[in-house]
Write a structure and sequence with these properties.
Layout: E1 2-5, E2 8-11, H1 22-26, E3 29-37, E4 40-41, H2 44-57, H3 66-79, E5 85-92, E6 109-116, H4 122-127, E7 129-135, H5 150-161, E8 166-170, E9 176-179, E10 183-187, E11 193-195, H6 206-217, E12 222-224, H7 229-233, E13 237-242, E14 246-253, E15 256-257, H8 265-278
Parallel strand pairs: 7-8, 7-14, 11-12
Antiparallel strand pairs: 1-2, 1-6, 3-4, 3-5, 5-6, 8-9, 10-11, 10-13, 13-14, 14-15
N-(5'-phosphopyridoxyl)-D-alanine binds at residues 33, 178, 181-183, 203, 205-208, 241-244.
Length: 279
């Protein structure tokens, strides 16, 4: 396994960053996770566009030109002989003596790692996953894909301890914002596909955007709006989306069965269509 750190390709176990990196001290950085399917990056352009946006929102300079980043990514796929894998890209504001204010001449840190993965086993797709709900205790700029992930770390652990795969976070109005590391979807009791609209309250998932595009192409109607936990519990179907899970059926929320307790047809169809769209 080869990692990339600031201009160097190094064996994964030997890769390191400075102890005064602002990513380490302040979580002052952003990231992307891109899945490699059959040697090709899924939704690469979407992820790089969102990375650019996250950097801009935090005034973190590009460590290399976007064009160079693309070349490094291609080289990482090649050097790791990545077929089915996950690529992790992290950019922080770099190493500097600890001071909350931005360093005057920041040298951002770019780290890229690659990990082989097996995709969701068919058994999981057949059974669907369990989700538990929890208060959304995050900050108000969830649209930025920041490495500041403590609420999600706590949430995922809580979900894990409850025997669930994902946590759905709920805002003060009782509306689901999103999963700890995924977007949340339901098919309402009336058969309408619903996922929350992009805003500062959620991360606008790249997989989410692609699934909406696929739905549009297939003439599947949808609504982008918040939904409550009660509406989700009464839904016919539910699923999550992310770069690592694609569309993954949810069959239990807070221990309650969704629909007939089996993955629903629309979620299945969208997953298949999304996989086809990857080519
Ligand atoms: N997480 N919402 C949150 C809070 C996320 O962390 C993610 C992705 C998503 C889905 O976005 P996308 O479809 O672009 O992956 C939504 C990644 C996979 C992670 O942190 O591992």
């Amino acid at each position: 396994r080869i990692a990339y750190v600031n201009g160097r390709y190094v064996p994964h176990g030997q890769a390191s960053v400075h102890i005064e990196d602002r990513g380490f001290q302040f979580a002052d950085g952003v990231y992307e996770v891109v899945t490699i399917v059959a040697g090709r990056l899924a939704d690469e352009q979407g992820h790089l566009t969102r990375l650019a946006r996250s950097l801009k929102e935090l005034s973190i300079p590009w460590p290399v030109k976007p064009r160079t980043l693309r070349m490094i990514i291609t080289e990482m796929v090649r050097r790791n002989r990545a077929v089915n894998a996950q690529l992790y890209i992290q950019i922080t504001r770099g190493a500097a003596p600890r001071d909350f204010r931005f360093p005057v001449n920041p040298a951002p840190t770019l780290v890229i790692t690659c990990r082989r993965t097996a995709f969701q086993p068919p058994a999981l797709l057949d059974k669907g996953i369990a989700v538990v709900t929890m208060p959304d205790i995050r900050w108000q700029r969830r649209d930025i894909k920041s490495v500041s992930l403590l609420p999600q770390v706590m949430g995922k652990q809580k979900a894990h301890e409850a025997g669930a795969f994902e946590g759905w976070m709920v805002d003060d109005e009782g509306q689901v914002t999103e999963g700890c590391s995924s977007n949340a979807w339901i098919v309402t009791a009336d058969g309408v596909l619903v996922t929350r609209q992009p805003s500062n309250a959620i991360l606008n998932g790249i997989t989410r955007l692609s699934i909406l595009e696929v739905a549009r192409e297939q003439g599947i109607g949808f609504q982008e709006r918040p939904f409550t936990v009660a509406e989700a519990l009464a839904a016919r179907e539910a699923f999550i989306s992310s770069a690592t899970t694609f569309a993954l059926p949810v069959t239990r929320i807070d221990g309650q069965m969704i629909g007939d307790g089996r993955p629903g047809p629309l979620g299945r169809r969208l997953r298949r269509a999304y996989m086809d769209h990857l080519g």
